[in-house]
Hints:
Four copies of one chain form a homotetramer.
Chain A: H1 11-22, H2 26-38, E1 45-50, H3 54-65, E2 69-74, H4 82-90, E3 96-97, H5 104-116, E4 121-124, H6 128-133, E5 146-149, H7 152-163, E6 171-173, H8 178-201, E7 209-213, H9 217-228, E8 232-236, H10 240-248, E9 252-253, H11 256-259, E10 265-268, H12 278-281, E11 288-292, H13 302-308, E12 309-316, E13 319-324, E14 329-333, H14 339-342, H15 349-369, E15 377-379, H16 382-387, H17 398-404
Parallel strand pairs in A: 1-2, 1-4, 2-3, 4-5, 5-6, 6-15, 7-8, 7-10, 8-9, 10-11, 11-14
Antiparallel strand pairs in A: 12-13, 13-14
Amino acid sequence: xxxxxxxxxxxxxxxxxxxxxxxxxxxxxxxxxxxxxxxxxxxxxxxxxxxxxxxxxxxxxxxxxxxxxxxxxxxxxxxxxxxxxxxxxxxxxxxxxxxxxxxxxxxxxxxxxxxxxxxxxxxxxxxxxxxxxxxxxxxxxxxxxxxxxxxxxxxxxxxxxxxxxxxxxxxxxxxxxxxxxxxxxxxxxxxxxxxxxxxxxxxxxxxxxxxxxxxxxxxxxxxxxxxxxxxxxxxxxxxxxxxxxxxxxxxxxxxxxxxxxxxxxxxxxxxxxxxxxxxxxxxxxxxxxxxxxxxxxxxxxxxxxxxxxxxxxxxxxxxxxxxxxxxxxxxxxxxxxxxxxxxxxxxxxxxxxxxxxxxxxxxxxxxxxxxxxxxxxxxxxxxxxxxxxxxxxxxxxxxxxxxxxxxxxxx
Amino acid sequence: xxxxxxxxxxxxxxxxxxxxxxxxxxxxxxxxxxxxxxxxxxxxxxxxxxxxxxxxxxxxxxxxxxxxxxxxxxxxxxxxxxxxxxxxxxxxxxxxxxxxxxxxxxxxxxxxxxxxxxxxxxxxxxxxxxxxxxxxxxxxxxxxxxxxxxxxxxxxxxxxxxxxxxxxxxxxxxxxxxxxxxxxxxxxxxxxxxxxxxxxxxxxxxxxxxxxxxxxxxxxxxxxxxxxxxxxxxxxxxxxxxxxxxxxxxxxxxxxxxxxxxxxxxxxxxxxxxxxxxxxxxxxxxxxxxxxxxxxxxxxxxxxxxxxxxxxxxxxxxxxxxxxxxxxxxxxxxxxxxxxxxxxxxxxxxxxxxxxxxxxxxxxxxxxxxxxxxxxxxxxxxxxxxxxxxxxxxxxxxxxxxxxxxxxxxx
Amino acid sequence: xxxxxxxxxxxxxxxxxxxxxxxxxxxxxxxxxxxxxxxxxxxxxxxxxxxxxxxxxxxxxxxxxxxxxxxxxxxxxxxxxxxxxxxxxxxxxxxxxxxxxxxxxxxxxxxxxxxxxxxxxxxxxxxxxxxxxxxxxxxxxxxxxxxxxxxxxxxxxxxxxxxxxxxxxxxxxxxxxxxxxxxxxxxxxxxxxxxxxxxxxxxxxxxxxxxxxxxxxxxxxxxxxxxxxxxxxxxxxxxxxxxxxxxxxxxxxxxxxxxxxxxxxxxxxxxxxxxxxxxxxxxxxxxxxxxxxxxxxxxxxxxxxxxxxxxxxxxxxxxxxxxxxxxxxxxxxxxxxxxxxxxxxxxxxxxxxxxxxxxxxxxxxxxxxxxxxxxxxxxxxxxxxxxxxxxxxxxxxxxxxxxxxxxxxxx
Amino acid sequence: xxxxxxxxxxxxxxxxxxxxxxxxxxxxxxxxxxxxxxxxxxxxxxxxxxxxxxxxxxxxxxxxxxxxxxxxxxxxxxxxxxxxxxxxxxxxxxxxxxxxxxxxxxxxxxxxxxxxxxxxxxxxxxxxxxxxxxxxxxxxxxxxxxxxxxxxxxxxxxxxxxxxxxxxxxxxxxxxxxxxxxxxxxxxxxxxxxxxxxxxxxxxxxxxxxxxxxxxxxxxxxxxxxxxxxxxxxxxxxxxxxxxxxxxxxxxxxxxxxxxxxxxxxxxxxxxxxxxxxxxxxxxxxxxxxxxxxxxxxxxxxxxxxxxxxxxxxxxxxxxxxxxxxxxxxxxxxxxxxxxxxxxxxxxxxxxxxxxxxxxxxxxxxxxxxxxxxxxxxxxxxxxxxxxxxxxxxxxxxxxxxxxxxxxxxx
Lengths: 411, 411, 411, 411
């Protein structure tokens, strides 16, 4: 078996961590039991390009229980937990290609290693597998039944491909499942971003001014948690509806150049590029902290910052201090990559439980329905989304159902 | 001119209040200026069945400015502001049929009076105009170009009609506009429900246990504000996704019968019937407070409560004390009608500004496009929704637009 | 029996309201039962200068149950509930001197009427009884055993008297009891101030900018609730410790002239004079709302505002619109008097229950201990404070008590 | 120079971290500059028993700048940052005795090493220096001018000594300074406890039930932040006033045995012993998480838990899984020692800046005033407390000062 991980000796440590995560993943556990009986993925080769974390390890176990042959590579150069990668290779016999801190060249060699396994199904987190397949490896595309995609960013890329008529197989946008984006983006990103910033800086959030760029689900989550930690939160947006929503939620809303001189910490969660750029950098306070929790490392224009700087040095793990020509210093966290994975552990297992339950069920659905689907981006089927939930609540009485279906009863 | 209001002598007082509201309705004001020039509603007879409040008065002025002949009746027997009704008749020469506290018979005579004006367009808040038109006055239906509907409840009724193939003209679901339901339901209902409860009871929310039935937009708003006032909030739901969302937002979630013995105050915002019923009443604490902020007075089963009681008396304006056979007392606010209009002033003007801007623009759209529309419930056209917003924010750079439309750029 | 109230015909209505309040005053009820047995105030003449509200009526009943002869006058010209005053006269046979909206001359005639009853004990809310006694009626002072004082403002005045060596009898600062100022000032003022503003204006707090002047217990409460309703809150202070605390709690802190141009609503809760003055008025936005929730109407310099204005008119009950010479308009609520009593109902009964339990027990203590006390301002005895509380909680084990009293056990 | 640290090779890494902390310690920096000029501690030997962290390193630099000879030992076996200890030895030439993870025997050998330096001043965090001095090393006591104490726990021990008439020199209770306990306990402990729990477990706080034992300043802080992260918070208390305050702040309050079966995570912050004991353990859910953020590791009765368990194993760094005889598992974090130092980095520098500014100024005060002080526990002199603050705020006008000092002006 070929694989590329940091050190197999880390496997024992990784195994304990994977078990720890498993305790908070009850939904995935239920699916695993069913998959073990029904084997819906029997004979399927599946290439997964995901953050190589304890939760992903549990997803891989579920897919294997369903009969799939899984190959795993990282979806981000900084997000791999090396001991988890080691345990997957050693204990689970899964070919893993992923090393924390790998450079871009190695990163893409790992993507290619995963595709070398000639998958029927791709499971993406940012669409790098599908992107590579539609680029240099386009000849391999006919072998694919379909794919699943985890993130907003990936879905944007896939829709762009589909809009140009160039998408070559169906993909399910797991990200769009209510049980995914509501919880993963809002509650997962919310907590883990704050966690990453505190681990990277140990800054006091209470009394600080935190600028959140973007008020989508991720931005809402981050804003809510920063406020919950006592920060004064400013939001920047490009969508007037979201801007108004942020205002109504009690945040200040203003353009980024106006927020620049008052912010102590800046967090990008937009899915877009160059959200913090030279005009903002040039107005920031000495000592300002800048980080990203969106998928790609393009949200902060680090090249522009480097050009404005006379010196860059690492002053703390995950903190690079840029000294501008003016003498002011700007601290960039995690090289502008998603801070919750770079400096912390990513989403809590309980959040990933729901996301990955969607992934597992979407893969099953794709295998069963690929022949009926077009070359398009599909939502997660609604029954999948609902299968995932389980809370003790009220249910509608027959009288209530009838009432909701009637129009005759008025004032 | 025929009309039916409480007392024209109240008109001066009403005029000042209408002016006060106008200050917080800048969007409607912009539309009024355009309508006055373009006269898009010229020659149109419009019957509006809305809460007769200061904000509605400002909407009526906009419709008139656009050229419409407006007849107005109440959409709820308890929600009329009598001095506003008086001013509309006296100063604006609008036929109004509406008296606060009118009984059901008078209520429907007012609905019929509005329909007697033989409208081309209906503007509904709960679908009583459309409901009556599809009942006893079905012969009048062909005269209609279309309608607009303000509430979730009304939209449910209209969809039910449409599903049965019986809807006779197109209706725009104003409620579904982002600028309506996000703000009106979440922020408007949130504040005004709390306001209504405090005015009705002067209870201290800090330290109290507030049970919110329903976690839709209204329920979110009410929960958020009750928590913001220091209450411990319990949510009841029938939808597992919303239940999970409420849990993640930090609320306790449980079935209503389990919440019954611990709640100090209960608020229904579900759009459904008998949400609080005998099993809950029989478990409530002595002195529990029960109220509704959903559209119709069916959410609390008052008939069941009356059957369980040996005595009912009014102990405070808007508070009826039901003494159960067990001796325990349950206090019902505002007769189970929407408490924010019964005991307070309904949504703040700033919220209604956006809802009513949607109404005005939807009426204009209906007049211009009625011939192209089918007998169905339509969403508010997206450009209308966006026309309404105006906040100073960032805009996308050409580079950012290109990035968002591309799929090639990966990790 | 002499008295001066608005209209005895309002008594029935007042009685129902007093009963409603009694349900939320369980502590006072316990004390009433003990007082009825022990009669600790037998033969005592007590003059109370308090806001004449439903809660005060319940306190008066407790004092009477203890044997006291009570005379009651208003401690604020705008805070009387006329139907409560009527019920106290008619049903409880208490001489009340108090009419909502009385002018300053009548106000002081009522203070003097209360003192004409030749009290042994004064019960003050703002120190107007004691102030008058130490002014024109100084000859009457030797008849006094002592007094109690409800507010921060009153305590400041009394300490000033005592510091000058001029205080002629002991006074207990009820305000300083933990069960008073924590709850009354923070939770009571917090909710009721927001309530007063919404009733007076129906403004939407979500998304608005609320400026709170003063971050004492009242300011904390008001800030917390304004934030809880979705406002963006700015705090102004003169004490650096409190300013830092406000910052840490997530609020913006700045000088008033800097806050003036951004605030939508301004609330003073400082206990000081001219907190909002000409420099702030001259920078405010058109339509700004200004109100006070501190004890006296001196916090907003209305004389300065009047001098800057070319026109003043009442545009809504409790709202006076001042049109500045520049054309901008500033809306003053409740004539600058405490907005929670002017436009709303004052503190909820549950809050006043604890404050007034302190008052009743302090009066009893004063009667029993007056001969041992000096001419000074005293705190509420700690055992009184604790007698008032009753929550189901843990208690210390003997082992824990021992641990807390030891120094030997270290790391 | 004698010292005992883990590895001098860690010094370079420690130096960068100390510099990083320095950026957020502006107050200490101001004092350092003054001390460097005035040398108020010239000739003084000072033994400090503090958490050996980056912030403490900055305090040590200030004391040295003032002329003191400082010896440093750890105040907790698990809280040492080994690279900081190394840098203090290597770069600052300070004798440090402290190794992360040292056992109790080594811990006390380090305490004794610090006392071997024959200090004039002790600087304690938990009173272990003073405790040891009053135990086996009592003969050394006369050499002491006085001491300072950082924590609530230490102050309790010192007061107990003083009450027994056995305290042998004056000690300043730095903990009682407003600038210390408000900010350090509330905001510092609040954030860092949450930080420690997330690092130790990566659990999702949103939607979880967090039980906070104790509602002092620390408990308030932890509760506020847990709520801010989306948890449902339950508080346990033994003081009825604090219990009521917690209720009013919107938390559920109940005895610990009642909270035991519903909590997902339990946090003790009481300063007392055996707060979580067998009766609570026996009712907890499978997988419950238990940790402490109070000073000593006595708050959770781990001995009782061990007796109830059939197996203990470490499942994750800082997590010990106790398997009860019933099969249920309870996870104890950081061996019951303060989780914010065990698993995270302790208070953010900005918080410690104020605490340690108090420490430095208190040491100076002690040196200057020791001969005037009795053998008692003293508060921080008020002018010290105020020297530390600096926010841009309003100041009182002469008119306002006069108003606050007068009693004549009434209604």
